[in-house]
Amino acid sequence: MNSLKNGFKYSRPESLKPSRHLYCAGCGHGIIHRLIAEVIDEFGVREKTIGIAPVGCAVFAYDYFNFDVTEAPHGRPPAVATGIKRVSPDKIVFTYQGDGDLAAIGTGEIIHAANRGENITVIFVNNANYGMTGGQMAPTTIIGQKTLTTPNGRNPHNEGYPIKVCELLSVLSGTKYLARTAVNKPAHVTQAKAAIRKAFQNQIENKGFSLVEILSMCPVDWQMTPHDACNWVENVLMKEFPLGVVKDIS
């Protein structure tokens, strides 16, 4: 359904199915899904786009995106994306991964795909915990943050320090574009869409590996209201993970 207000046209992107999602209230995944769908529609590549969904909150992405989406074992979307893109280089291939998937069990996969400079797009959702399984500590959990497995707060002497994926990948010669964004307020949503668009454009132009990290709210596992979760991203999470383009040589 389309509507017109203040000269702007609002409608559901063709790349999104008309289905209700199962994400928790206040979660950022729904926003990120729409941004991806809008970018794909704007480039006119829906019919040749293939998404890879891992184990995690995005495991049912095929219920929401109106294009081909395949599943991958936990942490292995970059390997699956590599295979699909090399066999069908004309396809637009992207992975949609959380921090537990990409930065924990999938650390080796993302590092080597990036180092090889695979011409794929990676959407990396960072909500600083394992969202689907109840809020355990993730590699991106910040120091002092309480989770199901760090009830007294993450202690660097026991659990180490948060992994900054963009900065980690920036030293690899194969990476072309790395950016960190957020979806906790409208201005950041606009910036996130611009970064996603850049990452897909790089692939369309065969420029190589691009990754967009998106700081997202997880109010249920953070045990906050959606409003407080947005503020926590702004006032706490962004201090550990500053927004901006980390690398752009595309």
Textual characterization of the structure:
- The protein has 250 residues and is α/β, with parallel strands linked by helices.
- It has a single domain (3-133, 163-248), classed as Thiamin diphosphate (ThDP)-binding fold, Pyr/PP domains (Rossmann fold, 3-Layer(aba) Sandwich).
- It has helices at 29-43, 77-87, 99-105, 107-116, 156-159, 165-170, 186-204, 219-222, 226-240; strands at residues 3-5, 8-10, 49-53, 68-71, 92-98, 121-126, 175-182, 209-215, 244-248.
- A seven-stranded mixed beta sheet has the order 4-3-5-6-8-7-9, sandwiched between helices. It has a two-stranded antiparallel sheet with strand order 1-2.
Structure in a nutshell:
The protein is of the alpha/beta class. It has one domain (3-133, 163-248): Thiamin diphosphate (ThDP)-binding fold, Pyr/PP domains (Rossmann fold).
Topology:
Elements: E1 3-5, E2 8-10, H1 29-43, E3 49-53, E4 68-71, H2 77-87, E5 92-98, H3 99-105, H4 107-116, E6 121-126, H5 156-159, H6 165-170, E7 175-182, H7 186-204, E8 209-215, H8 219-222, H9 226-240, E9 244-248
Parallel strand pairs: 3-4, 3-5, 5-6, 6-8, 7-8
Antiparallel strand pairs: 1-2, 7-9
